[in-house]
Amino acid sequence: MDQPSGRSFMQVLCEKYSPENFPYRRGPGMGVHVPATPQGSPMKDRLNLPSVLVLNSCGITCAGDENEIAAFCAHVSELDLSDNKLEDWHEVSKIVSNVPHLEFLNLSSNPLSLSVLERRCAGSFAGVRKLVLNNSKASWETVHTILQELPDLEELFLCLNDYETVSCSPVCCQSLKLLHITDNNLQDWTEIRKLGIMFPSLDTLILANNNLTTIEESEDSLARLFPNLRSINLHKSAGLHCWEDIDKLNSFPKLEEVKLLGIPLLQSYTTEERRKLLIARLPSIVKLNGSIVADGEREDSERFFIRYYMEFPEEEVPFRYHELVTKYGKLEPLAVVDLRPQSSVKVEVHFQDKVEEMSIRLDQTVAELKKHLKTVVQLSTSNMLLFYLDQEAPFGPEELKYSSRALHSYGIRDGDKIYVEPRMK
């Protein structure tokens, strides 16, 4: 059912958090707060507001009575206004300016690209630390205005905004730690480097689902651009086709966590090969694709890396190979061990004074072996007794008395002996 258009923030707030829809509850984690009501307010006992307000998909187009917002939202710290119909930054400013303790604001999927954000409006966002503008189609000019007015902004979400380029801000944002800019179309590394210039304190950069191509940057330049980067997400970077791009991640001096799924370069490898080769090439990372890299796993991966490249032509061997050979020495290839059960053995068949070496199948039964031996010893199967002597057993021969028992269950090995004797009448 479609929401009616032209609804105010205050109107939706009153409806959703009225006692009928949101009754006051006590208990751990409820976080419900009833603020003091200013004189003259007609809603003195009507609203029970938590500190986290979720008003997404409510058809909100405007703020409503600012005095009422100030009266009931003084304690609010998080506000989700995603997927509404807010298209005027002035209306957003009226809401935010009356929520003095607001730290988290989600404006995703509002048509805010239809208006210009002026600096005086952006000033009302000053206390916000986490701002979500996904699918808002916010221009870089809007982003720059926000950055200049939010001195404590730590996390910024700019996903699904159809960015093909990055426009540098006239000033650096020293406070930003996390930038989530997935599902855009940032292909050229020259655009990504601008993010390093704008956000020198960046700790986490999430670039998944962009069409990023090769990382064209020197190692020294990468270290200067992202001196504090600890985590990078490059999931589904369709343009990364060579191992040199992966090696360049080692240039980030504080990098510890990498996410690299859906990369064309890695598709031809098995899951095990992919993980081991990445761990060996990235010696500083402690977490790969969300999983901790244990000390034992790192050593196994680095030894695997040496053996993987040991037969490659010299011109194709990466520099990391030589570093690891210096660390571990030249390793011998792993022995190929066939763990399949043995299917046949060579045994000595003893009958009277005769000895004949024969190859027998271990999957056959005692009865089938007797049939096989019938022409050799000239005895009928009903008149034949078989004894098996393990060359290492201290207890002497064991009679093979159960006709339906398979030979492999006796543990017969090459060099063992089978004795055939006639049944005594």
Secondary structure layout:
Elements: E1 7-8, H1 9-16, E2 32-33, E3 49-50, E4 52-54, E5 60-62, H2 66-72, E6 78-80, H3 89-96, E7 104-106, H4 119-122, E8 130-132, H5 140-149, E9 155-157, E10 178-180, H6 189-198, E11 204-206, H7 219-225, E12 231-233, H8 243-247, E13 257-259, H9 271-281, E14 287-288, E15 291-292, H10 295-309, H11 319-328, E16 344-351, E17 354-361, H12 366-377, E18 384-389, E19 398-399, E20 417-422
Parallel strand pairs: 1-5, 4-6, 6-7, 7-8, 8-9, 9-10, 10-11, 11-12, 12-13, 13-14, 16-20
Antiparallel strand pairs: 2-3, 14-15, 16-17, 18-19, 18-20
Helix pairs in contact: 9-10, 10-11
Q: Which of globular, elongated, flat, extended, rod-shaped describes the shape?
A: elongated
Mean pLDDT across all amino acids: 88
Strand order of the largest sheet: 4-6-7-8-9-10-11-12-13-14-15
CATH topology of the largest domain: Leucine-rich repeat, LRR (right-handed beta-alpha superhelix)
- Please count the beta strands (DSSP E, at least 2 residues each): 20
Low-pLDDT stretches: 25-45
Beta percentage is 15-25%
